[in-house]
Amino acid sequence: MKKVILKFSGIIASLALMVTSMNVNSTCIYLAYQPELPKSAEKLRKN
C-alpha cells in the first residue's frame, strides 16, 4: 500500500497545484465560492 501512495503522491500534488493556480486566476462563481485565498496562493497569480 505504501508503494501505491508514494507512486501517486506526485500526481496528486501536481493536480492540487494546477487546481489552486486555476482558482487564483479565475473569477469567483457561485459553486466554487471562496471568500479568502490563502496568502501562499497569491504567488501563483498571473499579472
UniProtKB/TrEMBL annotation:
* InterPro entries recorded: AgrD (IPR009229)
State the protein's name: Cyclic lactone autoinducer peptide
